[in-house]
Write a structure and sequence with these properties.
The chain is of the alpha/beta class. It is about 35% helix and about 15% strand. It has 2 domains: about 130 residues, 3-Layer(aba) Sandwich (Rossmann fold); about 160 residues, Rossmann fold, CATH 3.40.50. The strands form 2 sheets. The protein has a 5-stranded parallel β-sheet, with helices on one face. It has a 4-stranded parallel β-sheet with strand order 2-1-3-4, with helices on both faces. Strand 3, helix 4 and strand 4 form a beta-alpha-beta unit. Helix 3 crosses helix 4 and helix 5 crosses helix 9. The longest helix has 19 residues. The chain is globular, with a radius of gyration of 19 Å. The structure holds N-carbamoyl-L-aspartate (NCD).
């Protein structure tokens, strides 16, 4: 049995296969509609979610399977003091596979050590979010037709943004990738990502506070929300929340084929006028998320 806790749990080859299956699903959905008949997915969300939870559920339903679960810790026995390990052992008696999100870093790893069914990490605190990264990789492959030779700007909350951490880890395995890390000083990328991922793999990167400084070099601009729930005090959040607001003016110098991504939810960091720009890929990205999760469920349940 294999779990998906960190994006590195999947090899580059396995990711290529998942993207291939997702593309096949996009083109022949009917073929997949009974692949998971009789199987159950449990979505255990100890932290809020719209896209991740619902895309997992939609994915399983489109494969013919069923879904059980909860969408907040308050509605589960966690509120009575039950440990994550006990919850996981219990749910393993009811479901064939579990997708879980938890506010604590490392919670999915701990859960996987106790689980009798495969666990998918749907976000653990400010740490990792491997299935958003699979979504992002399918988006990049579909929008740019490649996963190599790209200059990627990551903008916003690079400190707490788990999607950014997993995406850097994943993209660092492809050829000729450069990163432009755009954030205020307080929200810079954590040292461990710089040391253990970027420097270790000799990946070229630049850090800046100015979103426009390298705009004309970018193939991808990945915007992120300032992660309010991870701040220790409200004042810091209020000061930083509107640091970047991407609008058409700021995109003036950008390439004609720039791909603008965002894991969503968006708060203020992308102005609504950008939604009409053909380079805005974030709502297409939402849809890719369902297809790659369908491919992932098939792989983890060993359905061929
Ligand atoms: C992200 C998350 O939860 O980390 N959203 C998502 O899963 N699509 C990003 C965020 O909450 O800002």
């Amino acid at each position: 049995m294999k779990h998906l806790i960190d994006i590195k749990d999947l090899s580059v080859e396995e990711i290529k296969d998942l993207i291939e299956v997702a593309n096949d699903i996009i083109h022949s959905r009917e073929k997949y509609s009974h692949k998971c008949d009789g199987k159950k997915l449990a979505t255990l969300f100890f932290e809020p979610s719209t896209r991740t939870r619902l895309s997992f559920e939609a994915a399983m339903l489109e494969l013919g399977g069923n879904v059980i679960g909860f969408s907040s810790a308050n509605s589960s026995s966690t509120s009575k003091g039950e440990s994550v390990s006990d919850t996981i052992r219990t749910v393993g008696c009811y479901a064939d596979i579990i997708a879980m999100r938890h506010p604590k870093e490392g919670a999915a790893l701990v859960a996987s050590e106790k689980s009798i069914v495969p666990i998918i990490n749907a976000g653990d605190g400010g740490h990792n979010h491997p299935t958003q990264t699979l979504t992002d990789l399918l988006t990049i492959q579909c929008e740019k037709s490649r996963l190599s030779d790209l200059t990627i700007g990551l903008c916003g909350d690079l400190k707490f943004g788990r999607t950014v951490h997993s995406l850097i880890t994943a993209m660092s395995r492809y050829k000729n990738i450069k990163f432009i890390l755009i954030s205020p000083t307080e929200l810079k990328i954590p040292e461990y990502i710089k040391e253990e991922v970027l420097k270790k793999n000799k990946i070229e990167f630049k850090e800046t506070k100015d979103i426009e400084e390298y705009m004309n070099d970018l193939d991808i601009l990945y915007m992120t929300r300032v992660q309010k729930e991870r701040f220790f005090n409200e004042e810091d959040y209020v000061r930083l929340k509107d640091y970047y607001i991407l609008n058409e003016e700021k995109l003036k110098k950008a390439k004609k084929n720039l791909c603008i991504m965002h894991p969503l939810p968006r708060v203020n960091e992308i102005s609504k006028e950008v939604d009409e720009d053909p380079r805005a890929a974030y709502f297409r990205q939402v849809e890719y998320g369902k297809y790659i999760r369908m491919a992932l469920i098939l792989k983890m349940l060993e359905v061929h």
